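In the previous lecture we treated proteins in isolation. Real proteins rarely work alone, and many bind small molecules. This record shows how such a complex is specified: first the sequence, then the SMILES for zinc ion.
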Amino acid sequence: MTKTISCKNAGKDCAWSASTETEEELMSLVTEHVLAEHKEIELTSENISNIKSLIKEE
Ligand SMILES: [Zn+2]
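The predicted 3D structure, ligand included, written as tokens:
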């Protein structure tokens, strides 16, 4: 099972996406990307759970 997330699905005008085997790995990539490109997004626990709800499993 692959877990995938993309900024597009979050409604962002951004072509970034990532896919990993585990949610932990994926969230660490998301955190890096948000800190680098989306400084306006605060990584509060609420936002993190919103981000997790956008993860797709394939
Ligand atoms: Zn992005």
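Summary for your notes: The chain has two helices and three strands. The CA atoms of residues 3 and 22 lie 7 Å apart.
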